[in-house]
User: Which sequence fits this backbone?
């Protein structure tokens, strides 16, 4: 389902970019949105491949590496063969620009979203990235999410984005979500919402999310 949705979105982006009459800002936003989706799809493809070839569960993988973010560091340290970013492991290169991998929130419309606990979690593994307004709206157009009155939906779920370290401690009870005020992004693999939370830079701060896995069982 994720692959089908992404293919449709990228096809739309190519079609739109070939049309005349768009402003430079909107054209650049569409191109940037396409790059963000490609980065997300590449990350998912490499992660799926690494898990399959190495026969690893998502909790057995470390995402610590060259990005230097200590939040991903595991204790005790995982073997190099289980590191997604090590050449001896997954060999993936972490994308530049402030990306975060987390599983401490969910997106409505995927699996369970209630009665979640640390021992019986239903968080979604996702990538998130802060983006400019025009890029946010371009991403939503590709996803089929309505931008009302020239603005993206407002997040009412107070999403959480704790670094994913492969442990149950990174999951929450299901109280945090990427949840548009009018359910605009329910069931959407990717999308972009405005946060009103001051500690995230809001109002006027826009965050893209991309679901990689859902309902990661205990």
Assistant:
């Amino acid at each position: 389902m994720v692959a089908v949705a992404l293919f449709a979105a990228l096809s739309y982006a190519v079609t739109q970019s070939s049309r005349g009459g768009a402003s430079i800002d909107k054209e650049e936003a569409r191109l940037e949105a396409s790059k963000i989706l490609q980065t997300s799809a590449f990350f998912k493809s490499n992660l799926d491949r690494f898990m399959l070839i190495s026969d690893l569960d998502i909790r057995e993988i470390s995402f610590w590496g060259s990005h230097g973010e200590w939040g991903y560091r595991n204790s005790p340290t995982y073997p190099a063969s289980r590191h997604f970013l090590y050449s001896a492991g997954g060999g993936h290169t972490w994308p530049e620009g402030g990306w975060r991998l987390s599983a401490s929130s969910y997106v409505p419309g995927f699996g369970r979203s209630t009665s979640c606990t640390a021992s019986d979690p239903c968080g979604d593994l996702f990538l998130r990235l802060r983006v400019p307004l025009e890029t946010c709206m371009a991403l939503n157009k590709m996803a089929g999410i309505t931008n009302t009155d020239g603005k993206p939906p407002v997040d009412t779920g107070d999403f959480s984005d704790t670094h994913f370290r492969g442990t149950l401690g990174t999951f929450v009870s299901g109280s945090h979500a990427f949840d548009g005020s009018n359910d605009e992004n329910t069931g959407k693999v990717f999308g972009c919402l405005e946060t009103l939370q001051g500690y995230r830079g809001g109002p006027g701060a826009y965050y893209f999310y991309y679901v990689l896995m859902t309902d990661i069982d205990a």
In short: Confidence is low (pLDDT under 50) at residues 10-22. The beta strands are 100-105, 124-131, 190-195, 205-213. The longest strand covers residues 205-213.
